[in-house]
TrEMBL record:
<dbReference type="Pfam" id="PF00481">
    <property type="entry name" value="PP2C"/>
</dbReference>
<keyword id="KW-0378">Hydrolase</keyword>
<keyword id="KW-0460">Magnesium</keyword>
<comment type="similarity">
    <text>Belongs to the PP2C family.</text>
</comment>
<dbReference type="InterPro" id="IPR001932">
    <property type="entry name" value="PPM-type_phosphatase-like_dom"/>
</dbReference>
<keyword id="KW-0464">Manganese</keyword>
<dbReference type="InterPro" id="IPR015655">
    <property type="entry name" value="PP2C"/>
</dbReference>
<feature type="domain" description="PPM-type phosphatase">
    <location>
        <begin position="28"/>
        <end position="297"/>
    </location>
</feature>
<dbReference type="GO" id="GO:0004722">
    <property type="term" value="F:protein serine/threonine phosphatase activity"/>
</dbReference>
<keyword id="KW-0904">Protein phosphatase</keyword>
<dbReference type="GO" id="GO:0046872">
    <property type="term" value="F:metal ion binding"/>
</dbReference>
<dbReference type="GO" id="GO:1902531">
    <property type="term" value="P:regulation of intracellular signal transduction"/>
</dbReference>
<dbReference type="InterPro" id="IPR036457">
    <property type="entry name" value="PPM-type-like_dom_sf"/>
</dbReference>
<protein>
    <recommendedName>
        <fullName>protein-serine/threonine phosphatase</fullName>
        <ecNumber>3.1.3.16</ecNumber>
    </recommendedName>
</protein>
<keyword id="KW-0479">Metal-binding</keyword>
């Protein structure tokens, strides 16, 4: 799990503004087209998905169109999954400041995604229902892909050159040591289910509640140290494009990322999604709800299906995510494609809200002079807002008079998520 906003492991980070400026000034690349398909098999009726390809950064401006794809895998009922599908997108967009240019829009998305996830969780918990859901939420805007996720649904990227990368982190207590440590430090207990005679069975779970995940939306009866703060990753694809496979754990419990990607290469998106589901059912059977969305990001003047790998690929070229141009007659296109490396723009997985919202002198201030809560966007008078950094020790440079600011309810939620007050809501 990454620590430190915008860091890259082992590589120097290229500023997002510089990348976009370079693209606009030097490459003059057209926007890719986006094709998608989905498929599902239901066992419990708790998987839901969202596909919306007509969103606009600037209302009424078709050139600002972007797409959203998401999967919500519910548990203990479907109420949380349905609520999240209906409200998460609007909560995220309401947290993005108005009037931003394209560069600033990309830079604002990670913070807005965190705010939107937390607001959705807070609103759903206020309803008094005890179900929960994973959420894997993907925004595709031209060549830039931004993914936010809680739980164990997954999004992978399969590039034209054959490189496969995972754009999410699984928040399963069994595999994620850092999350186990965070949950116990915040007041939860982690252990297996005990049966008669004291024997322990099954995966690691968080108690009270017995949830196998450390992050989700909802789950008010488990404890608020099970947080809705998402892992966020943002990448910029090369002009070779790529394929996203977004799926619930009904897929990933049966198939590895490599198996899923290879099972559907050469197929258009709709058939590819069906093939991934078919392969998962062939491997494991229908033991869980099984949902898959395939999204192809296709270069201009290119055929929709990604080409299958050759039998003996160049390992070095695949590792670097490189791909030769499809049109050898076009020297400029060939030159651009030859250096088609996927750029990692942002990665952060901290569960600390103060760290994820950052420090901003003028955060949330409106034209009327009022401030807005950094999470739920309600108006605050200057004397009402509580800095997200008040009492925070995550950074010695934090100052309690600096924004973003939180309303009292969101400050209480922040404290609960960090184990600073009794968490969880007693349910009769």
């Amino acid at each position: 799990m990454a620590s430190g906003a915008g860091r890259r492991r082992g590589h120097e980070l290229v500023p997002l503004a510089a990348l976009i400026s370079r693209e606009m000034k030097n490459e003059k690349m057209e926007k890719p087209s986006v094709r998608c398909g989905h498929a599902a098999q239901s066992r419990k009726g708790e998987d839901y998905f969202l596909v919306k390809t007509d969103c606009q950064r600037v209302p009424g401006n078709p050139s600002s169109t972007f797409s959203v794809f998401a999967i919500f895998d519910g548990h203990n009922g479907n109420a949380a999954a349905i609520f999240t599908r209906e409200h998460l997108l609007s909560h995220i967009l309401s947290a993005v400041p108005r009037g931003l240019g394209r560069e600033e829009w990309f830079q604002a998305l990670p913070r807005a995604l965190v705010a939107g996830f937390v607001k959705t969780d807070k609103e759903f918990q206020s309803r008094g229902e005890t179900s929960g859901t994973t959420a894997t939420f993907v925004i595709v805007d031209a060549w830039t892909v931004t993914v936010a996720s809680v739980g164990d649904s997954r999004c992978i990227l399969d590039t034209q050159g054959g490189g496969i990368s995972t754009l999410t982190v699984d928040h399963r207590l069994e595999e994620n040591v850092e999350e186990r440590e965070r949950v116990t430090a915040s007041g939860g207990e982690v252990g297996r289910l005990s049966i008669a005679g004291g024997a322990e069975i099954g995966p690691l779970r968080c108690w009270p509640g017995g949830l196998c995940l450390s992050r989700s939306i909802g789950d008010m009866d488990v404890g608020e140290f099970i947080v809705p703060i998402p892992y966020v990753k943002q990448v910029k694809l090369s002009n070779a494009g790529g394929r996203l496979i977004i799926a619930s754990d009904g897929i990933w419990d049966a198939l590895s990322s490599e198996m899923a990607a290879k099972s559907c290469r050469g197929l258009p998106a709709e058939l590819a999604a069906r093939q991934v589901v078919k392969e998962a059912l062939r491997t494991r059977g229908l033991k869980d709800d099984t949902t898959c969305i395939v999204v192809d990001i296709i270069p201009p003047e290119s055929s929709p299906p990604p080409s299958p790998l050759p039998k003996k690929p160049n390992k070095l070229r695949s590792f670097l995510f490189r791909k030769s141009s499809r049109d050898s007659a076009n020297k400029l296109s060939k030159k651009l494609s030859a250096v088609g490396i996927v750029e990692e723009l942002f990665e952060e997985g901290s569960a600390m809200l103060a760290e994820r919202l950052g420090i901003d002198e003028g955060a949330g201030q409106t034209t009327s002079g009022l401030f807005t809560c950094g999470v739920c966007q309600v108006d605050l008078a200057p004397s009402e807002g509580i800095s997200v950094h008040a009492g925070s020790i995550f950074s010695t440079s934090s100052k309690p008079w600096q924004g973003p600011f939180l309303c009292a309810a969101c400050r209480n939620k922040k404290d609960a998520m960090e184990g600073k007050r009794p968490s969880g809501v007693k349910v009769a």
